[in-house]
Each structure stands twice: as C-alpha cells, then as structure tokens.
Amino acid sequence: MKSPARINEHHPECPSCGYGLTGQIASWTQQCPLNGVCPECGHAYQWREVFAIVNEWGSRVDWYSEHGGDWIELFQRAPGTLWRLMRPGRFFKAINHRRMIRLRMLFWWMLVVTAGLHLCISPVGAAGNAQAGNWSSTGHGWDAQWTQSTMDTVANTASAVLFPYAMVYHHDDGFELRLPFYDEDWAAYSMAAVIGIGDMIAWATLMTGVLLVQHDDSRDWRRQWGLLGRVALLSLVPMLVYVEFVRLGFGIHAATGMTEATDWVPYGFLGVYLLMLYWQQAIWTHAVRSIWNIKRSFLINIGGCFGSIIFGILFLFWVL
Ligand SMILES: [Zn+2]
C-alpha cells in the first residue's frame, strides 16, 4: 500500500543528472509549465517524466517475478524475467533502485528458474541413461514383462531428474536410491560455478565498502541492503544456468555415446562458462552504474571485474 505521504518523501529530480528540482516547483507562481530545464546540467525535460519518476518509488513492474502478486504471477513471469536479465542494462533501467524490493519473492523465482531448467534438461538425461543401459539394472530390457519395463522406466526417469545428486536403481527386489551419484568429471566441471559464488561475494563486499565510504546521512540503509541483496541474488543466476548446462552436456554425451575423438563437450562447457562469467560481470557493472548511480564507475567496475575473478578462483581453492 502506498499512501500519498510516502510518495511525498521523495523529491522530484532531473531525469538526466538527479539534481533536486523542488526549488523549480517553488518558483511556479501562476501555472504549472509542461517543460523545464535543469539548472544543474541544462537537460530539457517534460515535467510529466519527472513526476513519472517520483511515482516509481515503491512501485511494481508488470513483467517482473519479484513483483508478482501471487504464485501464479511468479510462475507466469519467470521466463520473461530470465530473458530480460540477459540484457542487464535495460533490465536495471526498469528494475531500478526506486522499485519495490521483495527478496523472498526473488529467491523463490530463482528456485522456480532452477527447477524449470532442471526439468527441461532431464529428458536428455533419460535418453543418456537408456543409451548407457542404466535403465535396466535387472537385465530384463524392453522385451521384459510390462511391469518390469515400467519399473525400469520409473527408475530411469527418476535418475534423470535427480542426476547428478542421486541415482535410482531398479533391482529384482525393488528400488534403491544411491547418494550422491556424481563422479570426478562432474565435480571438475560443475565446481567452476564456485568461482561465480566467489565473484558475487567479492562484488557484494566491494559495493558494501563503497556505500560505507560515501558519506550520505540521508541514505535509506534498509533499501540499500535490499538492493545489494537483489543484485547479489540476480548475479548468481548465470551460475545456476551453467550448472544446468553441464547436466545437459553430460546427458548429450551419454545419450549419443560420444567417443574421446569427438569429445567437444568440455569445449562447450568452457565456452558457456566464459559467457556466464561475462553475464555475471555485466549484471554487476550495470547495477553499479544505474542502481547506485555512481558517476565515475569506471575504476570500480574495472577493479570489480578483475578483483572478483581473482577472489573467485581463490575462493574455489579454499572450498576445495
Ligand atoms: Zn540535470
């Protein structure tokens, strides 16, 4: 609920430079003009856009999962939110520091995205299991009685969904769950995501430092921590996508029975990983520029990119 009093806490400011325009309004004597010029930067604006910005405080964006009113809206908006996050510049222009913050909904969105990708990729794993012969630990095969082959299919499907965290075997005397299933190859490729977690920690620490160093008594700290939490959560999404891509790679590898000679999968992992690392850095650099409106963001962004990757690699070794 937003009351007029709440909106009035925020003053109109220049759409270009953020200069406070309250003084301009005070100078109106006869009527409200349609257009104005910023005394600070000379930007010509329409008062309509200035008040549209004031009204953004605490507002929702209609395609964004974090702002969904209920679970249905959260689900409906989940793919669109992921799609828009791929262009972080435009994303943060809409999901700016004035919008409503609901980190719990954002967290649920991330779980929904992970589960969605996970389920989309699972059929490839099921095909891989079939190729590898894992689907029939009883040795009956497809020619067996339908009960046997149905139970094999159940075990195969469950294994594909649970890969690489567990495997379901079908024996003559029933099902068996084995934890954890992952092997050395899986560990080697998926552990790269730990670097991404380190990147996030390094960026969040850097921005906490920047916010603490900047003296601003009027700062709404609750909102600042909320924004930091939002960007930190969003910056983990590329790594979630990467881990699911590794699952996809393992599934394709198993399903097509590739040999070492045609083994392009590790190169695919590397390519996608670098892309995801770039996406993660882009999320932070755009956030620094548009959410925290830091003018000379160049040094912070260069330092953040290099520093976070170095810290991420150190973090991986610490975890190992
Ligand atoms: Zn201005």
How is this fold's topology laid out?
Layout: H1 4-8, H2 22-26, E1 35-37, E2 44-46, H3 47-54, H4 71-85, H5 88-94, H6 103-132, H7 146-162, E3 167-171, E4 174-178, H8 184-190, H9 192-213, H10 221-234, H11 237-256, H12 265-290, H13 297-319
Antiparallel strand pairs: 1-2, 3-4
Helix pairs in contact: 4-6, 5-12, 6-7, 6-10, 6-11, 9-10, 9-11, 9-12, 9-13, 11-12, 12-13
Bound molecules: zinc ion.
- What would you call the shape? elongated
Number of strands: 4
Q: What is the element string, with H for helices and E for strands?
A: HHEEHHHHHEEHHHHHH
The Cα radius of gyration reads 26 Å
The low-pLDDT segments are 1-7
**Count of discrete alpha- or pi-helical segments spanning 4 or more residues:** 13
- Secondary-structure-derived class: mainly alpha
Mean pLDDT: 84
How would you describe the overall organization of this protein?
Strands 1-2 form a two-stranded antiparallel sheet. A two-stranded antiparallel ribbon has the order 3-4. It has 3 domains: about 5-55, no CATH class; about 115-180, no CATH class; about 185-320. The protein has about 325 residues and is mostly helical. Helix 6 (about 105-130) packs across helix 7. It is built from 13 helices and 4 strands. Helix content is about 60%, strand content about 5%. Bound molecules: zinc ion.
